[in-house]
Write a structure and sequence with these properties.
- Helices cover about 50% and strands about 20% of the residues.
- With about 425 residues, it is α+β, with helices and mostly antiparallel strands.
- The protein has 3 domains: about 55-70 and about 330-425, Elongation Factor Tu (Ef-tu), domain 3 (Beta Barrel); about 70-100 and about 300-325, OB fold (Dihydrolipoamide Acetyltransferase, E2P) (Beta Barrel); about 105-280, Orthogonal Bundle (Helix Hairpins), CATH 1.10.287.
- Strands 1, 2, 11, 12, 13, 14, 15 and 16 form an 8-stranded antiparallel beta sheet that branches. Strands 3-10-8-5 form a 4-stranded antiparallel beta sheet, with no helix packed on it.
- Strand 12 (about 360-365) and strand 13 form a beta hairpin.
- Helix 2 (about 100-165) runs antiparallel to helix 5 (about 240-300) and helix 3 runs antiparallel to helix 4.
- The protein is rod-shaped, with a radius of gyration of 64 Å.
Amino acid sequence: MSTGTRPASTRRPGSQNQRPSRKRPWWHYLIVSTIVLALGGIAWGGYATWFALAHVRTVKARVTGLVVNVAAKDDTRVQKVLVRTGDEVAEGQVVVLLDRAGLEANLEEAQAQVAAQQSALLRAEKELEITIRQTAATMQEAEAQLAAARARLAQAEAEKELRTRQQPDEVRHAEADLASANSELDAAAATLRRMETLHDQGAVSQRGLDTARTDYQVAEAAVAAADAALAVAKARDYEGTIRSQQVATRAAEEQRAIAGLESAHATGRMIALLEQEVLSKHAAVSAAEAGVGAAEARLSDAVLRSPISGVVVRGPGYSIKDGEVVVKGMPIVTVVSTEVPLWLSASVSELYVDRIRAGQPALIRIDAFRRRWFHGEVEKVGRATEFASEQSSPWMIQEVPLKLTFDPQGMDVRHGMTCRVWIDYRKR
């Protein structure tokens, strides 16, 4: 009789407690996947929203180091560039050789100028020395001549005064007697003319006329005697005249001696002028020596050295080749220091400047290391703004420069690498 079950011999071992398996439909997995993706999207959206609200993203962020441009100090020609981009250089290492031909000629010219100025200085000092000796001798001689002339003048004046005191003033008395005799002669002549007139008229006698003639003759004799006495007095006073002439001669000698001394003093003033000339020659020598120093400095500047230890990077003068002419201050080689830690330079829109403070933390992602986050900190917020145009906006937007420090975490971070920076402005 059939029981509706399999015989015991036909059942598989262990299959008494197994349930028949049922395959889930495909839409079941679709729903689950959709729910998971939706939850993940919601979580990611929430995180992104929170991150965006708590952070400010900078623009133009890049890794920066201490950059030094090696440039020429004068317009010149490049003789040879000794380094290339990527080369490591040590502090003081020669990196560029400049043309030295013109600089050497300038140095020789400056040295020749020094020699000429030194020769002129020696001549001026020699002339000053000779003038000082001659002036000293001339002044001594002039002072001696003046002293002798004054002594002779004093002696002549003393002799004249002595002669004047010893001899009476005979000339003065003789001149007075002659004047008196001439007056008496004039009176006798007038009396004689009157008596002759009266005698012709018969008013006087011949005896009266003879008396008048006698008085006239006596007056003439008195005038002749007075004139002779005056001549004798003048003859006696001739020695006094000689003494006066001697005094005048000695006075003239004194004036000549004074003029000689004044001439010697004028020569002394010439010494002052020569001393000024010597000082000017010293200044000219110093200026010429300074020119030599400047020429030597320019010659030494023809050898350009790296002021720091670092790596040569592509800078403004990377395309300069040997033999090209460069102008003063034009960078030829650019070196980034390997001793000073790198930092980040970035900018932030002026709209967020009130949120940014020094000391705020930052999350950094360097494009060369996309899978690694770096941590940094705002070190400095710029005090000025700069214009920057956004591609998506026609307006001119002002941006504030920032400087951030960061931890490179041992990675090979290099100058110039671009990066993205988010600043957490919640901490103020």
